[in-house]
Amino acid sequence: MDTIKYLLSENQMPDSWYNIQADLPEPMPPVLHPGTGKLITPGDLEPLFPMQLIEQEVSTERFIEIPEQVQSIYRQWRPTPLYRARRLEKALDTPAKIYYKYEGTSPAGSHKPNTAIPQAYYNKIAGTKRLTTETGAGQWGSSLAVAGAFFGLDVEVYMVKVSYHQKPYRRAFMESYGARVIASPSNETESGRKILQEYPNSTGSLGIAISEAVEMAVQDAETKYALGSVLNHVLLHQTVIGIETLAQLEMAGDYPDIIVGCTGGGSNFAGIAFPFIGAKLRGEKQDINFVAVEPAACPTLTKGKYAYDFGDTAHLTPMVKMHTLGSTFIPTGIHAGGLRYHGMAPLLSHIVELGLVEPKAYGQLDCFAAGLSFARAEGILPAPEANHAVKGAIDEALRCKEEGVSKTILFNLCGHGHFDMQAYTDYQAGLLVDLEYSSEEIGMALAGLPVVG
Asked: Residues of the signal sequence (predicted)?
């Protein structure tokens, strides 16, 4: 029998997250205070995060235990299935073997609850009453809304304005779980009002939405901020994906030659790839090529600069060294809203600088075409963000066909596209276009990077 899916039982779910910082050949550059430019302290972060998350942010322990209260909720949908894409392989007529880990089985339909649940848990036990956050496409906001409902926390979501209007059902989903959703930039915050005064028709950005959420969090002792990507502890929580996949591939008697993930902030890619990168760094497994795919309309890794920058537009967040297009960069309103962020996770940026990951950028038209090809072969319609990983995997499979070699390709299908049908409608109606930025435009965006001594 040709096995299609590889399933783990609930008692095979990981009981620890994997921390790649334990295996890095060089430590990450330090985090700097946004006001003083000096090394940041745990106390500086306390207005935003509970101490247990701050400790995870700086930890170099290889494994960090997943609390039982978090595991009990994870078991609602985890372990997630690993699929062998046999029908896609046949459609492509490729000798490659293609596997995909499917995270669309979670309550929010994506990988984001893997970190929303523990963030809500740690905030709850620390006495937090309310969480503020930002969201682009709505997958993160949806996930935190679900987590807030599970733990009895109020949730306020600043949703990038272009996505707020593009994705009304994502908004309705969040509100169904009790979250309050605000189009960003808004008049509720000083940073939002400042943007609207200068750009009344601003479509927003994740950097602006982060500024608004952070501003609201620091004003109230019972309110904390939650982030869906970029930070170390967020990437840490996502590694349940790759840890499960290691066990599932062992069931299949296989191991990847190539791993592909989409990148916006970095959590999806980190979730699937970091456990495998760690095995490579420790010399335990064979060599693997890692491919991080981003949108050409927001080319952080492929055209950005590796430099210190703020994580938000109003410069309220710490300065971190990352691949960035500049904190004031406002990307065009492509439908892959979750990938429209000016920066990349510092941890992933560091690993790219170490030469362990190859970044690639694709236009949205090619990515939507790949998503439809995948859906017609495998039956799952991917989210626009996930289409970037699909495109990367298909390209690798076609390369195997051209070269006449059989390689094993793994990618992370981070979510379904059931809330993104307008995007597919627009694509099939020919209403979408590819947008790229010239070197001059990128240079202008980078001109305002902070000067760090």
From this structure: none
Half-sphere exposure at residue 294, Cβ-oriented, CA atoms within 13 angstroms: 32
**In one letter, which amino acid is 226?**
A
- Half-sphere exposure at residue 264, Cβ-oriented, CA atoms within 13 angstroms: 29
CA proximity to 341, closest of 201, 211, 170: 211
Taking only the tens place, the pLDDT of each residue in 28-69 is 999 999 888 899 999 999 999 999 999 999 999 999 999 999
List helix spans (H) across 152-266: 161-166, 168-176, 190-198, 206-218, 232-238, 240-252
297 vs 289: CA distance, rounded Å: 24
Report in angstroms the alpha-carbon separations of 424 from 31, 106, 163, 237, 387. Answer: 40, 22, 15, 31, 11
Residues paired with residue 362 on neighbouring β-strands, in sequence order: 295
Q: What is residue 258's three-state secondary structure?
A: strand
Q: Which CATH fold topology does 67-109+239-446 show?
A: Rossmann fold (3.40.50)
Residue 1 to residue 150: CA distance in whole angstroms: 41
Measured CA to CA, the distance from residue 316 to residue 23 in angstroms comes to 31
Q: What share of the chain is helix, strand, coil (3-state, %, to 5)?
A: 45, 20, 40
Q: What is the dihedral of CA 269, 270, 274, 277, to 10 degrees?
A: 50
In Å, how far are 28, 186, 225, 439 from 228, measured between CA atoms? 20, 20, 10, 29
How many residues are recorded in the chain?
453
**161-212 pLDDT per residue, tens:** 988 998 899 999 999 999 999 999 999 999 999 999 999 999 888 889 999 9
Ranges of H-type helices in 63-160:
68-74, 86-92, 113-125, 139-151
β pairing state of 305-310 and 319-324: antiparallel
